[in-house]
């Protein structure tokens, strides 16, 4: 018999066996197809979402031949893509810094070209809820040159100066729809929204579009007539241009436009770039031609993920093939009696892997493609931009399918070797024989585990992500080799347990060939999820540490510009209290300055507001060591934790972060009372409240205090227009230095955004300082929504404006969804692997269960036994997977720590805080909830009664 004939017979037997055991075959196909489906969908999604250069160009200039814009620097030289350009006179110091008049762009266009202009202006508009700030773009959206950049989703494009279109996100946030009217508040002109559009490159943009001349011109006219109406401040214009001929805008046209000071992005130049010798900018600046080479770390990570996915499939599908081989052992024995050798027996089992692997691979690729097409809009909305096209690379899809096929073969390899070793007599009689466990494998596994952990840790400390990935895989493989021994030890844990858990533990220990791969599969899935979740949790903690809030969490601030706008504060307060989730906390604040009664935010005459300065003493505890002459030497000696503590000390706090301000005063001195402590500072200290009531300032940053006192320097200057104060204080500016007794808050309050010291009103008056109502601070239960913001803005505008509302819009749960997805993924794999093992255990131990019923065991024992079998696999795999997942996560954080420390030693004021934070919620769900769920489901879905069959033989 030839090799080809033998394999043909083996494949025929494998196909028939697969069709006879449809349930087991479907299980194996599903296990192979699901990962193939995921990889296929990920590949197509990645390739489609990664826009090509041509697709990016279309998203930028639409269907136009080119986009012209004014560089604002006179004659320039540019790269062909238009992303990099430089002043042609960069070497002429006399030309640098000169004001360049705007270009008459129409004179720059090539002869016969057609162009449409684009210009945007920030504006406030009336919405269904109130008033919203947005960006209005004047562009002929109906022109064919805008296609590809702007697409109509609903309705029609504007056909006059009284119409607009809006993006879908804007309509949703404003509570409007196609057909609604909208008013630009500055000009008072009303527009009808005729259509909803989308920007394929930015699906989350909130913008309005109108035809040129529809918004800016009437707004400017209104401002010219009524000086109370603020003038529009449009951004620079740019033009979409269509060439006169088929050639479009060529390189010579681009260089001619550069001479006039225009930057050009041309489709023709992009498709047919000039030689480097024809690019003037490269001759004067060769560095612009340097390319970018991608790091190999991404490839290493991708290979690691693919390898672990294949390993997981092999571990899950292997026991199914093993059980199938045992159930077909009589058939394999007959094959031996007919003259088949061990190689042909192995070929039959491998043929099952080939058949089922091929079916799974094809089904996975097809299903992945169909699901990507079906969920394409959802994926695009999540990514924030449209795909250019559905990009499918046949070579990559073929490789994915081949990997699925190879995975099926690998899963059947171990069962094939075992089946080939069995004697014909054992196969025909059904005896399994007894084989001693190998002692070499666990010892080797323990050594490999130690080596892998050492390599991963060394990679982390040396800053090599590749070594981390490789070491983590090696460590996990070593742990896999140790699993049979660990499973064998489980049987000893059940000596004092009730019947069902004791039998489950002993069954798991006796059938390691079935239990160990399932435990390993759960471990592999959980390890990956725990590793990613740990790294993400640590990164989020680092981001939270570095985040500089503009306001204290859970607060909003009303701020007024001057005396005139401060008169609107009562109306603004009523609007906030009616429309926002105010929890009852409120504190009124005032600004303080030395000098004339002036606008401290914008002083036309300069210097009229005077200055006040909170002087920081010198010496230890007052001066930040990281901002001195020997800072680099000091940073080189510090550990990450020591550097973190020093950075967060009051002495370095102000120099490390800028915590915002309630006024133009950089010293962050605010006039307020005890209500400010509870509402904004979150300081529950009766002594501090009593101090403010007694007229003693409360200092939040102890670095400015010395012996319980602070030094306040003031320079009192007066406008010439301020005749009253100028008459009382003629001559030069008056300077004063005051020593104030203060109440010093604890060090943690030095990071309070916007406030360094709270000054009582009567103390400010005693020092001869000016005060003025600046606004109100409110405690709120959640960040204001778009609708709440718009309602409050409308009420303030109706009262005369001049007051604005501040809130910290930073989302603090930005990664919780990803962590939830990871937890669900690991949970599904855990429950699935445990269920597979339980099903295989029932199929494999049918005779034992029959004997159990025959000797009088209650029906519930069978159900409890299945539940505990599932629980053992799930719990063991989760605990081992959690330990395995921490290795790469910790090692990668060590890589980040090394990089942060290197940066910190170069720039001592850079944060080197790189925490390792365990995702306890994820670990808790995986270690407790998921195993219990798996056990309960297995017990609930198991029949408690068994029909006794006649004993064979």
Characterization of this structure:
It is a single chain. With 953 residues, the protein is α+β, with helices and mostly antiparallel strands. Among the domains are: 119-236, no CATH class; 459-547 and 813-953, no CATH class; 548-807, no CATH class. Helix content is 51%, strand content 14%. It is built from 32 helices and 23 strands. A six-stranded mixed beta barrel has the order 4-5-10-7-9-8. A four-stranded antiparallel sheet has the order 14-22-13-23. It has a four-stranded mixed sheet with strand order 16-21-17-20. A hairpin with a 5-residue loop joins strand 8 and strand 9 (190-198). The chain starts with a helix and ends in a 13-residue tail after the last helix. The model is unreliable at 91-97, 291-301, 600-607 and 811-815 (pLDDT under 50). Pfam families: FtsX. The chain crosses the membrane at residues 300-324, 345-377, 397-419, 440-461, 473-494, 515-536, 817-836, 870-892, 912-941. Residues 305-423 form the ABC3 transporter permease C-terminal domain.
Q: DSSP helix count?
A: 32
Number of strands: 23
Shape: globular
- Summed over residues and divided by their number, the pLDDT gives a mean of 79
Name the structural class. alpha+beta
Biggest beta sheet summary: 6 strands, mixed, barrel
Strand content: 5-15%
What is the radius of gyration?
Answer: 37 Å
Summarize the helices and strands and which ones pair or pack.
Layout: H1 3-20, H2 22-49, H3 53-61, E1 66-70, E2 76-78, E3 85-87, E4 114-126, E5 131-139, E6 151-155, E7 163-167, H4 168-174, E8 181-184, E9 190-198, E10 207-210, H5 216-225, E11 238-242, H6 251-260, E12 262-266, H7 267-271, H8 280-284, H9 297-327, H10 329-337, H11 342-374, H12 376-383, H13 394-421, H14 424-429, H15 440-462, H16 465-490, H17 499-510, H18 512-546, E13 555-560, H19 563-566, H20 569-579, E14 582-593, E15 611-615, H21 631-637, H22 640-647, H23 650-656, E16 669-671, H24 674-681, H25 686-693, E17 698-699, E18 709-716, H26 723-728, E19 734-741, E20 743-744, E21 757-759, H27 761-766, E22 770-780, H28 786-798, E23 803-807, H29 816-844, H30 846-854, H31 859-906, H32 920-940
Parallel strand pairs: 5-10, 7-9, 16-21, 17-20
Antiparallel strand pairs: 1-11, 1-12, 2-3, 4-5, 4-8, 4-11, 6-9, 7-10, 8-9, 13-22, 13-23, 14-22, 15-18, 17-21, 18-19
Helix pairs in contact: 1-11, 2-9, 2-11, 2-13, 9-13, 9-16, 9-18, 9-29, 11-13, 15-16, 15-31, 16-17, 16-18, 16-31, 17-18, 17-31, 18-29, 18-31, 20-28, 29-31, 29-32, 31-32
Domain ABC3 transporter permease C-terminal: 305-423
Main location: membrane
Membrane topology: Multi-pass membrane protein
């Amino acid at each position: 018999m030839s090799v080809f004939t033998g394999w043909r017979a083996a494949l025929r037997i494998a196909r028939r066996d697969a069709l006879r055991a449809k349930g087991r075959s479907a299980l194996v196909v599903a296990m192979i197809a699901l990962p193939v489906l995921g990889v296929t969908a990920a590949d197509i999604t990645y390739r489609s979402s990664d826009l090509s250069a041509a697709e990016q160009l279309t998203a930028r200039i639409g269907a136009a031949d080119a986009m012209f814009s004014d560089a604002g620097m006179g004659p320039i030289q540019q790269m062909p893509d238009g992303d990099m350009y430089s002043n042609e006179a960069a070497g002429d110091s006399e030309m640098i810094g000169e004001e360049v008049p705007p270009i008459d762009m129409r004179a720059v266009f090539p002869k016969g070209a057609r162009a449409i202009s684009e210009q945007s202006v920030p504006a406030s508009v009336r919405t269904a809820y109130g008033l919203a700030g947005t960006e209005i773009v004047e562009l002929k959206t109906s022109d064919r040159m805008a296609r590809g950049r702007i697409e109509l989703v609903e309705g029609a494009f504007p056909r006059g100066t009284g119409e607009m279109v809006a993006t879908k996100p804007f309509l949703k946030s404003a509570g409007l729809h196609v057909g609604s009217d909208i008013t630009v508040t500055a000009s008072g002109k009303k527009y009808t929204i005729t259509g909803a559009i989308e920007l394929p490159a930015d699906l989350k943009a909130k913008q309005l579009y109108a035809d040129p001349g529809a918004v800016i011109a009437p707004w400017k006219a209104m401002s010219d007539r009524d000086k109370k109406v603020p003038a529009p401040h449009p951004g620079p214009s740019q033009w979409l241009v269509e060439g006169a001929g088929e050639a479009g805008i060529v390189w010579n046209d681009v260089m001619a436009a550069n001479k006039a000071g225009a930057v050009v992005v041309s489709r023709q130049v992009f498709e047919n770039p000039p030689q480097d010798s024809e690019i003037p900018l490269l001759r004067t600046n060769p560095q612009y031609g340097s390319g970018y080479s991608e790091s190999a770390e991404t490839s290493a990570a991708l290979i690691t993920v693919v390898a672990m996915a294949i390993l997981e499939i092999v571990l899950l599908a292997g026991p199914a093939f093993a059980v199938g081989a045992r159930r077909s052992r009589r058939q394999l024995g007959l094959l031996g009696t007919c003259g088949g050798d061990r190689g042909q027996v192995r070929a039959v089992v491998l043929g099952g892997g080939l058949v089922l692997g091929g079916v799974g691979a094809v089904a996975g690729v097809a299903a992945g493609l169909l699901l990507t097409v079906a969920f394409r809009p959802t994926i695009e909305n999540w990514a924030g931009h449209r795909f250019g096209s559905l990009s499918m690379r046949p070579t990559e899809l073929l490789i994915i399918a081949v990997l699925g096929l190879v995975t099926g073969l690998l899963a059947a390899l171990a069962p094939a070797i075992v089946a080939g070793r069995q004697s014909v007599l054992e196969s025909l009689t059904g005896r399994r024989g007894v084989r001693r466990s190998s002692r070499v494998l666990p010892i080797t596994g323990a050594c490999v585990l130690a080596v892998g952990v050492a390599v991963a840790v060394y990679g982390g400390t040396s800053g090599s992500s590749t070594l981390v990935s490789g070491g983590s895989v090696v460590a996990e493989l070593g742990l896999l080799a140790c699993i049979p021994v660990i499973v064998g030890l489980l049987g000893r844990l059940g000596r004092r347990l009730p019947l069902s858990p004791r039998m489950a533990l002993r069954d798991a220990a006796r059938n390691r060939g079935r239990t160990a791969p399932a435990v390993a599969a759960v471990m592999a899935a959980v390890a990956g999820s725990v590793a990613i979740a740990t790294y993400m949790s640590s990164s989020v903690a680092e981001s939270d540490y570095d985040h500089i809030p503009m306001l204290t969490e859970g607060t909003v601030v009303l701020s007024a510009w001057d005396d005139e706008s401060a008169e609107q504060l009562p109306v603004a307060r009523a609007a906030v209290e009616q429309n926002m989730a105010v929890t009852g906390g409120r504190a009124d604040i005032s600004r303080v300055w030395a000098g004339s009664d002036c606008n401290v935010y914008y002083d036309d005459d300069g210097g009229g507001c005077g200055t006040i300065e909170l002087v920081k003493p010198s010496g230890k505890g007052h001066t930040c060591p990281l901002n001195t002459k020997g800072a680099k030497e000091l940073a080189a000696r510090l550990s990450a934790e020591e550097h973190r503590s020093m950075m967060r000390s009051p002495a370095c706090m102000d120099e490390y972060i800028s915590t915002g301000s309630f006024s133009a005063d950089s010293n962050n001195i605010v006039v307020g009372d005890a209500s400010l402590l509870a509402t904004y500072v979150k300081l529950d200290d009766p002594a501090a409240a009593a101090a403010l009531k007694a007229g003693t300032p409360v200092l939040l940053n102890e670095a400015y205090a010395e012996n319980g006192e602070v030094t306040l320097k003031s320079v009192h200057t007066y406008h010439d227009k301020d005749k009253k104060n100028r008459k009382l204080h003629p001559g030069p500016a008056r300077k004063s230095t005051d020593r104030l007794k203060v109440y010093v808050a604890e060090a943690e309050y030095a990071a309070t955004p916007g406030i360094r010291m709270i000054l009582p009103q009567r103390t400010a008056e005693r020092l001869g300082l000016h005060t003025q109502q600046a606004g109100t601070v409110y405690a709120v239960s959640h960040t204001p929504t778009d609708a709440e913001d718009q309602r409050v803005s409308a009420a303030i505008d109706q009262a005369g404006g001049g007051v604005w509302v501040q809130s910290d819009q930073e989302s603090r749960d930005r990664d919780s969804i990803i962590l939830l997805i990871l937890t669900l993924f690991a949970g599904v794999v855990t429950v699935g692997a445990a269920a597979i093992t339980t099903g295989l255990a029932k199929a494999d131990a049918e005779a034992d269960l029959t004997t159990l019923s025959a000797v009088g065991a209650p029906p519930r024992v069978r159900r409890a036994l299945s539940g505990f079998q599932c629980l053992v696999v799930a719990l063991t795999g989760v605990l081992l997977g959690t330990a395995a997942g921490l290795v790469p996560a910790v090692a990668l954080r060590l890589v980040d720590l090394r990089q942060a420390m290197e940066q910190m030693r170069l720039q001592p004021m850079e944060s080197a805080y790189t925490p390792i934070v365990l995702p306890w919620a994820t670990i808790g769900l995986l270690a407790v909830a998921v195993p219990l769920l798996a056990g309960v489901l297995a017990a609930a879905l198991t029949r408690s009664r068994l029909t006794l069959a006649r004993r064979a033989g």
